[in-house]
# Entry
Amino acid sequence: MQRSRIAGIGYYVPENIYTNSDLARFMETSDEWIQERTGIRERRFADRLEETTTTMGIAAAKVAMERAETTPEEIDFIVFATLSPDYYFPGCGVLVQREMKMKEIGALDIRNQCSGFVYALSVADQFIKTGMYKNILVVGSEKHSFAMDFNTRSRNVSVIFGDGAGAVVLQPAQEEGQGILSTHLHSDGAEAELLAMYYPGAHANKWLKDKPGYPEQELGGLFLTAEQLSGGAALPFMDGPAVFKKAVVKFPEVIREALEANGLSAGDIDLLVPHQANLRISQYVQQTLGLEDRQVFNNIQRYGNTTAASVPIALCEAWEAGRIKPGDLVCLAAFGSGFAWGSALIRW
Ligand code: UT7
# Structure
């Protein structure tokens, strides 16, 4: 069977660094609280006017494409994962196609939040396996800083997230045994509202009709009203402890599923690159699977949670640091809003 491989990888993070103490200027929080609960020391925030989710994605894509020795004309499909798109619609994929002057290729946007990149990689992998495409650009990028509320009421969310982008070029693997061995994707929407942004949205409002800002009018206006905006209904909501409890179960589960499907065990993993949601979650997963420090890569300390960008940024940093060598078994895993989660096992 034709496998796909990561032929090039790149990332981009904005220059602006915000430490925990910087955030404490805007809300009641502290460096001590944030480090103790999440491991985060600082994060990057995009330039408010010059940078967007698309421009950061393109910056990462350029590095990945250069390393893959692939030109924009050679890319034959784009998969773009984000929860913070430049526009509500169209998605960022077509903006990449336009700005990078690519041919009139297909562009697909993936809305799977923290597991977005793993989903995107899996989709791209299927297209390579079937032989439909030969050069797929997969991007994960987020500009969270634009949509977050930096007041105390939202401090459990806004201290966690950061901006950035990561990208890979996927191509058919050349060597026997090399490439993406498998991907496993899951979801359970039973608790979809526990980590969500409700507005703007076309939902039936059953979750929100008793909440402040629910519109009274008979027609229209439900998508986003001034009351919803001022009442905070258009801000991300997260039941942190509930998400944490689910994450520490689903991460090990989907990693074990990947290993079992390939007749491997945790000891075979050369590097686990988990979605960077919380250092405590990564440490818990490491402990549960019995992995040594050398087998796990974390960089949440410097970037916070960059959602769809976190896995490719971490993967790229690990690769640049020499933590991934040809032949290594690399495991990617992610869990987040939806809930949606997944894993990818790669023979580098
Ligand atoms: O990647 C997407 C998936 N997301 C996740 O995986 C997130 C998973 N959840 C978490 O990482 C953690 O739940 C958080 C880091 C979000 C929160 O940590 P926690 O230990 O679960 O805290 P908590 O939400 O239970 O809040 C504990 C206390 C509360 O105060 P009281 O009620 O005990 O007085 C919060 O109001 O901490 C307070 N608090 C804060 N204090 C200072 C919440 N956020 C902050 C803050 N600074 N930023």
